[in-house]
Amino acid sequence: MSGPAAVALAALVRWTNLVALAGVVGGLVAELLLLPRDGNGLAAVQQRLRRLTFASLTLLVVASGADLIERARTMAEGGIGAAVAALPLVLGRTHFGVMWRLRASTIAIVALLCWTRARSAGLVALATMLAAVFTLAASGHAADWGDATATTIVDWVHASAAFAWGGGLGALWWCVFRAPPSLSSAALVTITRRFSRLALACAAAIVLSGSFNAYVEVAELPALWSSAYGRVLALKVVLVLGALALGAMNRYRLLPALSESAERVIDERPPDRAPARLLMSRYIAGEVILVVVVFGCTALLGQLPPPRRGDAFHDASHTHVE
To answer: In terms of CB atoms within 10 Å, which end of the chain has fewer, N or C?
Structure first.
């Protein structure tokens, strides 16, 4: 397999890894930072969040294995048999192999920590998961200048914020807005307000770090439409802006309406005929769809040579022998 088919396959594997990472980070963030500490009436939500986290961890294990085999196949320039034969070399003597081993170790630690219900274990699991995100940044375009460099650190911040925001959105929609009716309106408002504040911080980090990454990777403005990398990046920016617009609608229009609706329930006044909860759920679902497509663009960007100033063709596989 070569050419566009190979790029598409590698991007698909990378996209699956990104979605799985977002699911794990988002599930942990939602349980640790969004749910009220008293936990009254939140047992069903917590159970759904844990199922989401474990399902994402399972997908991440499978996707990480596929990523390793795909990188080995690319390096060996052959089929599955050649890829399997090249695994010891890729794992033991390439930069990607080092990062992959570190990521596999962090995933195993997170899986063990998630078996306990202790909040302290959850916080350690979240910190460990963010370390796994760093290995992702350290095996991409940003690491061309080294692992402990400004480009890698900024890319790590960018990815961490994107996973917390995107994964948190998915967790919020699937585990909170689609939760059983036992979830009170007051709890829903509290969770949504907390996520809104988190999303605002993540959005700021994404915009600032993304602007830096674009400045590094794209030499000149015309490259946005004259190169494949630039066109995919431009599409990604448009999709992110669309998701941010939906988020702003939720924060500044629907969240106040949701709060007012919760107050009506408390005061036993007649509820609105068009519940803000339903409309907000639809908007959040739209954001989730856009974020999933954004992750697809990110995965594809990792397989394309960035049009840097004076840069020769860039090997996106990052499987050079050390």
So the answer is: C
**CB of 160 closer than 8 Å to CB of 201:** no
The model's pLDDT over 183-196, given as tens digits with 9 standing for 90+, comes to 777 888 889 999 99
- The encoded tokens of residue 46 equal 């917590």
Q: In angstroms, what is the C-alpha Rg of the chain?
A: 21
Long-range CB contacts (< 8 A, 24+ apart) of 120-123? 122/28, 122/31, 122/32, 123/32
Nearest to 125 by CA among 203, 44, 53: 53
**Do 74 and 318 touch, CB atoms closer than 8 A?**
no
Q: Which of 229, 240, 248 lies closest to 304, judged by CA?
A: 229
**Res 180 pLDDT > 90:** no
Contacts of 196 (CB under 8 A, 6+ apart): 250, 251, 255
The secondary structure of residue 133, as a DSSP letter, is: H
Q: What is the DSSP string of 211-239?
A: HHHHHHH-SSTTHHHHSHHHHHHHHHHHH
SS3 assignment, position 94:
strand
Q: Report which DSSP code applies to 321.
A: B
Residue type, 321: V
